[in-house]
């Protein structure tokens, strides 16, 4: 398999995985978690019902209070911050609650307001909680029904629900709660990065050169996502973190919703922006007489990866940046074609055939058609000032230029 074919196979796998995780129309699905607990049903009900002792054990809720004059409404405060850094709140409506002759407690609820998200986001959400007596205690069953677009949201809800029930069980048994961040622990993420490297290795050849390319690609992804995390921390995202998904790469996650368009654009730009600082260092190292081959390979991967991320596609960094800077369709279209043209020129400059460039452009156009379910914030993002637009635009120009130079420089010396 040639390098060109390898690249297209990897792109095809990534497009398929992205579609499955972010855009696959799953429709309405119900997630059900059931757990046997060594406690009477009445006691479990007091802990697990809305308005009960949720804040004593729930991993995400810090307080629960009734709303005056509205007996069927409750306000829940969460540990997760909103865009201003305050505790996120949600108002839930209790549509049905009761106890049967067999001693089963149940309630049905929905979310009617959210301090971070528009109420439309929760329009299809329903939750049912049931506590049933058993011979050795009681069984808790929680069902959450919602419409899903993409497997990622479904899996996130499933894991969160299991985490909630496990926290209740730990509280009842008197055990120390398991840290819910264990998946995001640096050691776990390092192991996933190693797994991703090994999975990529066969695509580049099962030899030392193939392993070198696979390792370099993983390192480039790490540097890129660290750039996003630097921006998140600068904007006050205290719990910003990075998770590694084998084959797909890394994903930097902020600690709260965005507050402004400038914040969105800067956090997206800094992936390529921080990586750009490595370019002059690598070129200087190469020109200083160090072993040139590996340095040039790393430089080529670094430049190419970041250029692809700057393409003006919907889910790419470039698309996010341009949508914040340019607010009219005409300006956005012109800027998108300009950035795409620069990247296509780079491919032509390093010797890619017109057919290869056309095929690559077709794939990325296909990728841009992937649409996820829109998460609409409750309040519109703060608009960018002209100074912020100018600064972000020059930042994009600088990141684009330096990575173009990295690719041209590395290819000129590797293949020239």
From TrEMBL:
Keyword Membrane part of the UniProt annotation: yes
- Keyword Hydrolase on this protein? yes
- Membrane-crossing segments per the record: 6-26, 186-204, 210-232, 264-286, 292-311, 331-348, 354-373, 394-415
Cofactor(s) needed for function: Zn(2+)
**Which residues belong to the signal peptide in this entry?**
none
Keywords, A to Z, come to: Hydrolase, Membrane, Metalloprotease, Protease, Transmembrane, Transmembrane helix, Zinc
What domain of life? Bacteria
Protein family: Belongs to the peptidase M50B family.
What's the name of the protein? Zn-dependent protease
Source organism per entry reads Ciceribacter sichuanensis
């Amino acid at each position: 398999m040639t390098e060109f074919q390898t690249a297209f196979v990897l792109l095809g796998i990534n497009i398929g995985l992205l579609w499955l995780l972010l855009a696959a129309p799953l429709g309405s699905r119900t997630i059900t978690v059931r757990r046997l607990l060594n406690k009477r049903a009445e006691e479990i009900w007091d802990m697990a019902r809305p308005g009960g002792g949720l804040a004593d054990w729930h991993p995400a809720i810090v307080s629960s209070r009734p709303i005056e004059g509205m007996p069927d409404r409750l306000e829940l405060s969460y540990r997760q911050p909103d865009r201003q850094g305050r505790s996120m709140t949600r108002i839930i409506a209790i549509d049905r609650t009761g106890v049967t002759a067999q001693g089963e407690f149940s309630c049905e609820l929905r979310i009617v307001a959210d301090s971070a998200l528009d109420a439309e986001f929760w329009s299809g959400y329903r939750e049912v909680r049931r506590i049933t007596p058993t011979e050795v205690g009681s069984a808790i069953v929680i069902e959450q029904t919602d419409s899903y677009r993409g497997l990622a949201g479904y899996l996130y809800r499933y894991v969160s629900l299991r985490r909630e029930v496990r926290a209740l069980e730990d509280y009842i048994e008197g055990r120390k709660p398991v840290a819910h961040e264990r998946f995001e622990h640096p050691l776990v993420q390092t192991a996933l990065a190693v797994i991703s490297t090994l999975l990529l290795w066969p695509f580049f050849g099962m030899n030392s050169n193939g392993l070198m390319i696979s390792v370099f690609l993983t390192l480039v992804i790490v540097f890129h996502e660290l750039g996003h995390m630097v921006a998140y921390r600068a904007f006050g995202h205290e719990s910003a973190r990075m998770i590694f998904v084998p084959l797909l790469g890394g994903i930097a996650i902020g600690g709260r919703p965005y507050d402004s368009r400038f914040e969105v654009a800067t956090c997206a730009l800094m992936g390529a922006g921080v990586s750009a600082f490595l370019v002059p260092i690598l070129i200087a190292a190469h020109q200083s007489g160090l072993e040139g081959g590996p340095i040039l390979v790393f430089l080529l991967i670094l430049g190419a990866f970041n250029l692809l991320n700057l393409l003006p596609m919907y889910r790419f960094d470039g698309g996010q940046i341009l949508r914040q800077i340019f607010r009219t369709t005409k300006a956005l279209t012109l800027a998108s074609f300009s950035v795409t043209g620069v990247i296509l020129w780079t491919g032509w400059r390093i010797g890619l055939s017109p057919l290869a460039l056309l095929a690559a452009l077709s794939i990325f156009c296909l990728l841009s058609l992937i649409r996820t379910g829109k998460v609409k914030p409750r309040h519109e993002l703060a608009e960018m000032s002209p100074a912020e637009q100018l600064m972000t635009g020059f930042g994009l120009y600088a990141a684009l230029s330096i990575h173009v130079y990295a690719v041209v420089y590395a290819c000129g010396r590797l293949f020239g």
